[in-house]
Amino acid sequence: MAEERRPRAGKSSTTAARRTASVRGAEHAARAACRSLEGLIGHPTEGVSAVRRIDDGWCVVVDVLELPRIPDTTSLLASYEVQLDQDGELLEYCRVRRYRRGSADE
Question: Which pick of 5, 7, 87, 94 has the fewest CB atoms within 10 Å?
Answer without folding.
Answer: 5
